[in-house]
Amino acid sequence: MAYTRKDVSTLTATEKRRFVRALLELKRRGEYDDYVRMHIEYYTSDGEDGLRTAHMAPSFLPWHRKFVLELERALRRIDDSVTVPYWDWTHLRSARSLPWSDDLLGGNGRSWDQQVTTGPFAYREGNWTIKENVTDGRFLTRDLGRARDPLELPTRTELEAALNDPVYDVSPWDSTVTRGFRNKLEGWGTGRGSASWHTHNRVHRWVGGVMLGGASVNDPVFWLHHAFIDLQWTRWQQRHRGAAYQPERPPARGTAQYRRVVARYEKLPPWDVTPDSLQDVSRIYRYV
């Protein structure tokens, strides 16, 4: 029977507490940092050689769907009542709203070093030490909204622009495409600075701190953000019946994207699954 993923704003006090406890236990066991390392390993950009799976490629959505699902399964082995909630950043748009409460993810970082000092993931609580991709410190950091150069979260209108595109992705299957649902949702744009960050990418920039870059999994909000991104793929499928993951076939030998993207029926590293097998997960979970 399928379980449910809920809007973070509808969680009960008990559901928040159990979600947090499961995350902290996964961290205590040393398993959580495996997910941080995996995301760093598979964060391959257009400018690098080799296969792209997690970002700047059609498999952005199925890769993260599988990634969130694996984390969720680990949490449910600790507490089978837990599922990953989603953060609707088109509705909860303030640094003072959920999920930034003391009983969930804690709040913003302090001004001089961005260290998060409130909530269960604050460094001083002793339960959430950053161990992967450590830069300035071993504490969780955030800069919600970017105090020195303010940035707004994506709007419902911007999200709708992605959902309304009837094509999943187009050649050359990278961060430069201006058509297709995948890149409009992932959010790679033209220009410099904030003008080039849209939808998914802009949310990472708005949170700031450790959410910038491949080690963004160090902030637990990563999972709530990507659950909402995953929900958008489901909504896009419902809106465009019959539309499917592209490319269906691998790019031809001799082309720029040969062996650089995952086609619909190819294995999606590091798992023994294909993008096609991840297009319908309604028997595993649903959103409410």
Please describe what this structure looks like.
The structure is a single chain. With 288 residues, the protein is mainly α. The chain has one domain: Di-copper center containing domain from catechol oxidase (di-copper center containing domain from catechol oxidase), CATH 1.10.1280.10. It is built from 7 helices and 2 strands; from the N terminus they run E-H-H-H-H-H-H-H-E. The protein has helices at 13-28, 32-41, 60-78, 156-163, 181-186, 199-207, 221-239, and strands at 3-5, 285-287. The chain has a two-stranded parallel ribbon with strand order 1-2. Helix 1 (13-28) crosses helix 3 (60-78). The longest helix has 19 residues, at 60-78. The model has no long low-confidence stretch (mean pLDDT 95).
Strand order of the largest sheet: 1-2
Give me the secondary-structure category. Answer: mainly alpha
Whole-Å distance between the termini? 15 Å
- The total of helices stands at 7
Q: What would a concise description of this structure say?
A:
By secondary structure, the protein is mainly α. The chain has seven helices and two strands. The chain is globular and about 55 Å long.
Brief descriptors of the model:
single chain, 288 residues, mainly alpha, di-copper center containing domain from catechol oxidase, two-stranded parallel sheet, 30% helix, globular
